[in-house]
Amino acid sequence: MTCELTIVASHSCDPASLQALEADGFESGGMNLAASGRPADLAAARRAAAEFLTALGIDLDQDGLRETPARMARAYAELFDRPPVRLTTFDNAEGYDELVIARAIPFRTVCEHHLLPFSGVAHVGYVPAERILGLSKLARLVEHFSARPQTQERLTRQVADCLAERLRPRGAGVVLEAEHSCMTIRGVRATGATTVTSALLGSLRSDERARAEFFALAGTRV
Questions:
Q1: What CATH number does residue 106 fall under?
Q2: Do 53 and 131 have their domain in common?
Q3: Does residue 21 lie within any of the structural domains?
Q4: List 11, 114, 143, 179, catalytic entry
Q5: Model-level pTM?
Q6: Cα separation of 141 and 167, whole Å?
Q7: Does a structural domain hold residue 210?
């Protein structure tokens, strides 16, 4: 049997909100988490961008800069455009009980502290229980939660929590490796520095061997 879950939320799939919807959601197939965000107001964003750049002493009358506020507004609107995700799951008819990992999923998001980009790769995996997930959906989860101002720590945990709550696997794990422009082009200017975060749940957290296998298959040194 195929089961589908639609996520259209613009907030975290936190355990409290998901538990409240468990009864008629995952097992019956098809559940919407209502979006809480507002549509982008590009006109207001353009005006704000123009004021912002002018306040920094940038002359917007120059030929190459006249349309910059509009381009800036559209760029950030695109970065924060969160697409809905339909998670398609299937019966684990063969009883597969080993790790499933999607490695090196590219992602990009924006640091909520400076609104500067950070980007990298995500390694997302789980140990199936009763259901398995369409593989592309692991990448879709990363894309979904990346489309907002983020911290790497929160993004890592959101993907792991949502995967664990919705799929109910025996274990779930997420590793993010990213370069943050807020620390490479400003401040300390640590060019080439990367940040690694991880979130392990279930057997991948409690079983030392399973944990080591996950990090090894993800290609992460611990």
A1: 3.30.1130.10
A2: no
A3: no
A4: 114
A5: 0.83
A6: 12
A7: yes
178 DSSP 8-state letter: E
C-alpha closest to that of 122 among 14, 6, 220: 220
Q: What is the dihedral of CA 33, 39, 40, 43, to 10 degrees?
A: 180
pLDDT digits (tens, 9 = 90+) for 106-152: 999 999 999 999 999 999 999 999 999 999 999 999 999 999 999 99
Domain assignment present for 14: no
Clarify whether 3 is annotated catalytic.
no
How many domains, in total, are found in the chain? 2
Q: Answer yes or no: 180 catalytic.
A: yes
Catalytic site residue 19?
A: no
11 catalytic? Reply is no
Q: What is the extent of the structural domain holding 46?
A: 42-79
Which DSSP string do the residues of 168-212 spell out, in sequence order? Answer: --SEEEEEEEEEEHHHHSSTT--TT--EEEEEEEEHHHH-HHHHH
